[in-house]
Amino acid sequence: MSVPEVRDRLRETYGRLFWDPHGAPLDELVLTVLSQSTNDRNRDVAYARLRERFPSWEAVRDAPVEEVEEAIRPGGISQVKSRRIQDILRALPEDLDLSFLRDAPLEDARAFLTGLPGVGRKTAACVLLFSYGRRDVPVDTHVGRVATRLGLLRAGAGSDEQHDELTRMTPRGEEIELHVNLLRHGRRTCHARRPRCAECVLLSLCPAGPGFLAAAP
Question: What pTM does this model have?
Fold first, then answer.
């Protein structure tokens, strides 16, 4: 079993994804922070309110933290996220210009991002991939769970290992499609507690599937 086999079956179910990098790394960075521990709708509402409330990221950086917290409250754990966003913005260059991430050596770009307050490997991968199409596959809870059950990733692997291995196995140029379709599959079918294995298009490829089927009521 290989990543291309998984990709092809997921493509049949969810379609082939085409995505043009948007070139806005700071927007992606803040959006990814807002996505933590919430759903996409709440994340998007919080992001929209933040942009409506403040005219620039500099204004977000310099505002009283209580105002930032109020703006992003629909996204959940707003007290933590508001401080994290401001800590990140204050750790960046004064002009908040992250365009160097497009052409910097990949390891240097990744190290810069993961050196920011509260920024881990998944957030860095989202910024690099969605902003500039750089080679990285973000591994969140859903992606990691599906890939581990399929045997693509080692059970118990840490975040760096998960990202390195899944990126290594993914055909170049298909990082976004694989990430998004694994994420969709984890949300819709390969659930954490009760995966819907009988309906899964990956069942015949999945070493974990027969065990879940046997244990199903």
Answer: 0.91
